[in-house]
Design brief:
Blueprint lengths: L5 H27 L7 H11 L3 E7 L5 H9 L15 E6 L4 E6 L13 H10 L7 E3 L5 H4 L8 H7 L2 E8 L8 E5 L7 H11 L4 E7 L6 H11 L8 E5 L6 H15 L10 E3 L2 H10 L2 H5 L3 H47 L3 H60 L4 H4 L6 H66 L9 H13 L3 H10 L1 H10 L6 H8 L3 H15 L9 H22 L1 H44 L4 H32 L1
Parallel strand pairs: 1-6, 1-7, 2-5, 7-8, 8-9
Antiparallel strand pairs: 2-6, 3-4, 3-5
Length: about 675
Amino acid sequence: MPISSYEDMKEKKSQIMCSLYDVAGIVDKLNEMGLAINGTALIDLKKKLESDNFKVLVIGEFKNGKSTFINSLMGEKVLPAYATPCTAVINEVIYGKEKKATLYFKNPLPEEISTDITPSAMQHLKKYKSKEIPPIELDVNDLVDYVAIPDPTKDQADAIKELPYSKVVLEYPIEICHDGIELVDSPGLNENGTRTKVTEEYLNQADAILFVFRCPKIAGDSEVNYITEQIQTRGYNDIFFICNAINQVPEEDQGRLIKFGKKKLLPLTSLGENGIFFVDALSALKAKQEKNRELLAHTGMPEFENALSEYLRNNKGKAKLMQIIIPCKSFIETLKNQHIKSYIAALDQDVNTLEKKINDAMPNLDFAENRKDLVVNRIDLRIQELEQTIRDLMNAKYEEIIGKLPKYVENMDLENYMSANPFKQKQTKDALEKEVVSKLEQFVQKEMGTWIKMELKMAIDNNIDKLQQEIGEDIDIFYEKLDEFRVKLSGVEKPKNISGLERVSATVLGTIAGGPLYGALGASLGLGEVAKRSAVTLGATFTGGVILVFTPVGIAAATTATTVAVVAAGILQFATGGKALTNKYKKKLKESFIESLKNGREDGCKEYAKNIACDVREKFNLVNEALDAEIQIEKSKVESLRKNKKDTVEERAEKLAALADYEEQLNSISSELNALGQAIE
């Protein structure tokens, strides 16, 4: 029968776990016989099944009210929620009878640790003096001291890198988390590239996505791009959309906004209107604190909470279990057909015949291994070319942006700030810096964002397509020779209508990487598609991270230095008049900023290209691991068979009986998984 409760799900989860352990036990027995079967996939599936039951990741751009939204679910202001960016680590909210916060540390710790962390944390680190630091309990009221960057004036990329914390787990008596559900508060998107990357790295662990917008701005270009390029490409289509602060929209306009919002968001979620909610999280928090049911009823939060609970109970639990069942069944079939049956066929023959078959088959295996080396060399060469191409394109874009800057700076409207009260010079300077930084960031982000998504993406796609086509032919030959080896050795039938690239994609992304989703992507789209998606969604390629790439010290630092220089030079002498001051400031600003861009040019281009090339190389280098694993399995099989030649007739018969028994056990496990899958669906 289908999953009817959390307890029912736990029971089915336990049954699946037993199946995984049974299959792993058979793999161990086969490896004792010398088959050298890679059990990484089973380990990954166990980890996924053993993990916390439901991770609900709350995502949104800075200032959209994510933390306030989660606070409203808890009914208390617990998570830090400020108008300025501060969150640098993941905050996980789980159910607990009593409020409790636990701080977890990175493993391994950063090579350099920030000296600005709290004294208690520093003392804890010194106490253990190891790379693996145990967690410590925190006062819930002190969370901001740990989730925020200690020194906000420091380069944020370095600051986050030097933080020794990985996450904070907050236990709280929140009803929606009662059945093993976690709410995860993430750093804001597009506010800073490094913080954005923290969120991106957590995406693969999530089971459900809540994307928070802030009314009246709904589904802006940057948000939609992130949903389509980062979230949906990871297989999340059943997304909940939370349109927060609906109360900020005049009542007479709310109907039009809701209609517009649904039109924009409906194509982005498979949940339909049941996945789109317009809420007033701040009022909901106030209502819960004051136990005001009437106010709460008008915030939109009760409807959302009911929908989320229903979805998690009836839908996501099923999907999560099926994500374990399907790849496990696939692993079993591979184990039976490619390993056990072939080994039985090879073992069940006389010694002389076996040795002859081994000798006849070995040239095919040697040929396959040489072809594998050719594939690896070709991958390395093409990725070097890709890196150089990106550097060249980046340099050209640099020149274009530098060429546009003078005109852009000249057209900046700064006179309102420059003509401010002369007795409020500091306030004027601060306001000016803020305005200038904001305008320059917007300019660079707009220029770079469009270019990255269009021209750079096309260049990456073309290069990866070329690489995939080239190695695809070689991989086809590799598997052709490998299959010929297997046929000659044991008579196993060749797989039909499956390209070599599809086979290696399924192996790489399904067993080595351990993700059933990516296994499916690899099999259906090819490894190249996954690599392209990965490359163009690097943190460095997002507009929020472009600033850090192009200016080593950041725009803020550059413009602040300019403003300080202006003040020091006595230019801000208000008696001379606002317009004259503006022109002088703009000249200084233009010179300083252009110099900053030019100084960071070479390093920026190099680092940018290196990051993308490294990510693509990482994906394609898995091809080497997959092909090498195939080779090693067959070599181990040959070695084992030759050792078995010395066995007595009785010993060989015993091994054949054991293999037949393992095959029968696997058939039984597969049937049990089929029954579980049908029950879940």
